[in-house]
Protein 1
Amino acid sequence: MHPIGRLFARVVLRAGAGVEEAVVESDVYDLSTGARVDDDLAGAFQDLEAGRVGPADEALAAAAKPVAAREPGTCSGSS
């Protein structure tokens, strides 16, 4: 089981007397590997963020089958 999430950054640009500020939001990533998750998993994460679904029961995670690790440098995520 891997944690997934979004990355947020607050960006402030200053030039003379002018200041602009923005919040930049990333796609949904596997926080253990740094790989972007597939669209179906990203959609489920967005539903959880919006409160449309609740978190899974921890018993389901405990019963999950392990997935073999990938070789370094390989990524199954979309580009």
Protein 2
Amino acid sequence: MPLFLLYASSFERSLKSLDPQQRAIVVRIIESLEIYYTHGCNLSRVFETETRFFYKKLRHDFYEAGVEGKLRIILPKDGTSCVAILAGNHDQIRKFMSG
């Protein structure tokens, strides 16, 4: 069963603080997530287009995804949907998760 990627208003706000190069990385992450979710969470399909993609569980129902080590997206997973809630670097993600 495919998962669906949704976007919270907090995610859109987090994009405003990023420069154009960082936004391009976020687009790559989103494209990779779309491939991952529409192909039944098959990492090998994502690696065909984005070899550095990572997707890992942080805690509870929160996951992080990225294509490079510096910028990530946080997503809580709820049934068949994941909601992008924040795009940021490692420190921003830690601050969010601890708050």
Protein 3
Amino acid sequence: MPRAAKADSRPVGALQLLALGINGIVGVGIFFVPASVAASAAGLGAVVVFALTGLALLPAAVTFATLGRRFDKDGGPVVFARAAFGDRVSFLVGWVAYVSALFSTAAVTVGLTRATLPALGLTSGLVARAAPALLVTLLAAVVASGLRLSARVWTGLTVAKLLPLVLLVFAFVLAWGRFPTPAAAAPSAGWLRAALTVVFACQGFEIVPVIAGQVRASARAVPFATTGSLVFAIVLYVALVLACVSALPGLAASSAPLADAAAVLGGASLSQLVAAGTSVSALGITFGMMVTTPRYLSALASGGRELFALDRISVKGVPTRALAITWLVVGAIVSLGELGELFALSGIAVLMQFGTSALALVVLAFRRERGLRPLHAWPALPTLAVAAILVVSGATAREGLVAAGAILLGLGLLRLSRPRRLSSVPEVDALAGE
């Protein structure tokens, strides 16, 4: 496991970990996705699609929760793959997840600054061009200050982003009966297209086990936060979509469905608050990524092979070398602007994380390792199905080429690594032989 100092250890509690998971799921997408879903599943069909898609993802959350409670170390899918398949597979899983997270972080950062700078009167000039890199530097500095502070920041941002959404739901409850009941819709092929959109809006719970080594009572906290964040998001999303469907007869044509529904249900003030929540949500996602992304890099270097001591973690719970590299690379990517978006590979990365974690659960369960039994492997098949659907529906040829390039680069880095000296091999988890 990453080498952590003893001081200031375990700074993250269960509720803060839950906030991290919710922050990872409830991003910018929910502010716009209801309209695109309604275009394929009209009326109450949109609500049903959100509910059923969220439930279909529960086995994936259970997969991560089942494994996460048995690995009291950072890395999530990386350490799961290492236990089941060895260092080489886990290295590549961690590397592709890391590269994907780099470009996702950069994309959200650029999008956030583009959305907020015009309100500040900054549409051009040096400050506007440097704003994404400055934001990355600021967030990296906060992360470097320690995980205890980071946990408070991501929890605060999560509460801030949820506040306007909860107020919108509350306004809808108060207005119950003012609007006609939305029309029911029979299932159609369009529902599948809508469900694929919802799947991407419900991802994010998989980051919870990535910081397990910094969590108090992780065997309880990780399953609670992994499944709890998804269940919370499903309930919230269903309520929000029901509000939109009820308040907006022309939901499919809305460019800002949550803000438009807020205007109908609560007036201009609530609409402005919800619209502002879009930027707060993007900031929360960006900060969460700056916290978790370096841990993929530190985790892939924490096994049987050393790589530039990237697995070192400071007394404040921060993988400082991995964070420094992440800051430099993301800063370089955001300077590319739209060019950075050409290198996105989120679909492939999700396949590797979901797919290898599900397979790892099967392998470890049938080996009866870490207290697992074959019965524990039940979520693996539906999780593999979700991963396959995501790739078939969401991955592009360009993304495949980028993923192939990332894997080749990862193989090159693997050759640069060296076997870890016996004296520096991390301690073997006591559960390994159970």
